[in-house]
Amino acid sequence: MIKLLRIDDRLVHGQVALTWTPAVGAECLVVANDKAAKDDFLKMTMNLAKPANAKLLVKSIADTVTFLSDERAKPMKILVLVNSVQDAAALAQALPEVRSINFGGIRGKEGARPISKAINVTDADMTLIRELLAKGIELEVRQVPTDEQRPIETLL
């Protein structure tokens, strides 16, 4: 069962390991990222950053959909990490159980503008955000579990 789908361009790091994993009771972290799935060095570094008591899987977006759709994954408590609005939207489109997405951190890049201290979005991201909201998916901004949940529509 997906406990949390989080957009964080850093993927696995201390905040995820020390606060989010225990807060949602995750026993498995799934990094859904096409580039990371092919990068052995990145996989190794993320494995070092994960909590000792959690399993780490690094999969492509397509393989993540297959894994999360498998009945054997249903009893697992899973924290899914993506690094972009595009990847989160792809998972939400393919997996009807995705009803909420946490925006944790998206650093600035060319063509992006800040909507909060830690979230920068492009016009393409804004289009996807509006589509996700129209489908009734909750989009909330929160860097750590103890932060107040802020609906993303209040920041647009």
UniProtKB/TrEMBL annotation:
What name appears for this protein in its UniProt entry?
A: PTS sugar transporter
TM stretches of this protein: none
Looking up SUPFAM superfamilies in the UniProt record yields: PTS IIb component
The segment(s) forming the PTS EIIB type-4 domain are 1-156
Does Kinase show up as a keyword for this record?
A: yes
Q: Which PROSITE patterns match?
A: PTS_EIIB_TYPE_4
One Pfam family this sequence matches: PTSIIB_sorb
**Keywords (A to Z) from UniProt:** Cytoplasm, Kinase, Phosphotransferase system, Sugar transport, Transferase, Transport
Origin species: Dyadobacter beijingensis
* InterPro entries in alphabetical order: PTS_IIB_sorbose-sp (IPR004720), PTS_IIB_sorbose-sp_sf (IPR036667)
Top-level division of the source organism's lineage: Bacteria
- Indicate where this protein resides in the cell: Cytoplasm
Q: Does the keyword Lipid biosynthesis apply?
A: no
